[in-house]
Specification:
single chain; alpha/beta; 434 Repressor (Amino-terminal Domain); Rossmann fold; 3 domains; 6-stranded parallel β-sheet; 4-stranded parallel β-sheet; 12 strands; 44% helix
Length: 340
């Protein structure tokens, strides 16, 4: 007996698209719906409307799997995704993996069993391509903000290398020559890309990339404070730092304050993400705007396109821009004042 999967293969679309056509959804393009209906005839599919009615209560759900909702970056990403799904008439199911692989596996399995139309996943740390091997009947899954090497799932995220490059170039223009990098987990691609951008900018400026200026730490405010204490205690202390994220940067500014120092005057700091909290920090945080909510919206739009459209013939990778937002923590205001 023919199944929805048989129709999907015959029509060259996802199983979710077939389900939407069967329910008469107006989100499917007319030509796609016609192709699905023809495939139904070709494979001899008979629609069981009674069974479909029993399932109808769970047909508009989309999974949102975040790696760490304690981190406001992922909370803002989730808001961007949820707003977009709501406007499209879809209901999100939100789950937090707390960067735990076993929990991520369980959450994904449960969502697939529940019959979600698709999933937007921010992978847990240490996720490898093999952890995301999905059955052929699985709905579309999109990776958000964290790339996984060797994984062909669609990806949506910011340009990490470009952002870090802009941050380093800005500090070089302000006259800094010993610029530290306060980094996160070196095993994740986001850290690798941001560190690469930092290194590229230093080399382009004729500055050496010194291992002693890399301070790996937890991606938290406490981690930022720890990195700053180690940097200030080093034999040849840096005068500025690019931070992996805003949480580290905020923690670094507070560590300076505890020593009676001020970010932007005694030490220049640039964050990454432009969290809502960044502008209210003391002093306000210079940072790279990752357009988090806009990228969440973009991820939702792409997922809907995959649900409604044909199966992928090639991997999708969408990278957003990175914009430098200059505030007081880098000291640019003092430079402008001196020039004036």
């Amino acid at each position: 007996r023919a199944t929805v999967l048989d129709i999907a293969r015959q029509a060259g679309v996802s199983r979710a698209t077939v389900s939407l056509v069967l329910r008469g959804s107006d989100r499917i393009k007319a030509e796609t719906a016609d192709r699905v209906r023809k495939a139904m005839q070709d494979v001899g599919y008979v629609y069981n409307r009674a069974a479909a009615n029993l399932r109808s209560a769970r047909t508009n759900f989309v999974g949102m799997v975040m790696s760490d909702l304690k981190n406001p970056f992922f909370s803002e990403l989730a808001v961007g995704i949820e707003d977009s799904l709501y406007r499209l008439g879809l209901t999100p199911i939100l789950a937090n993996t707390n960067d735990d692989l076993a929990r991520q596996r369980q959450v994904l399995q449960s969502m697939l069993e529940y019959g979600v139309l698709g999933v937007i996943l921010s992978p847990a740390r240490a996720t490898e391509a093999g952890h995301l091997a999905l059955p052929p009947t699985a709905p579309p899954v999109i990776l958000a903000m964290r790339k996984i090497d060797g994984c062909d799932l669609p990806y949506v995220g910011q340009d990490n290398a470009e952002g870090a490059r802009k941050a380093a170039e800005h500090l070089v223009r302000l006259g800094h020559r010993r610029i530290a990098f306060f980094g996160g987990d070196p095993a994740i691609t986001t850290q690798q890309e941001r560190h690469r951008g930092y290194c590229e900018a230093l080399r382009a400026a004729g500055l050496p990339v010194l291992p002693e200026l890399l301070f790996e730490t937890d991606v938290t405010k406490d981690g930022g404070g720890d990195a700053m204490e180690r940097a200030l205690a080093s034999e040849a202390a840096p005068t500025a730092a690019i931070c992996y994220n805003d949480l580290i940067a905020i923690g670094a500014t507070r560590a300076l304050a505890r020593r009676g120092l001020r970010a932007g005057e005694d030490f220049a700091i640039v964050g990454f993400d432009n969290l809502s909290e960044a502008k209210d920090n003391f002093p306000p945080l210079t940072t790279i705007d990752a357009e988090t909510m806009a990228m969440g919206d973009r991820a939702a739009q792409i997922l809907i396109g995959l649900i409604d459209g044909p199966a992928l013939s090639a991997p999708i990778a969408v990278t957003g821009g990175s914009r430098l937002v200059v505030r007081e923590s880098c000291g640019a205001h003092l430079t402008r004042r001196a020039m004036g």
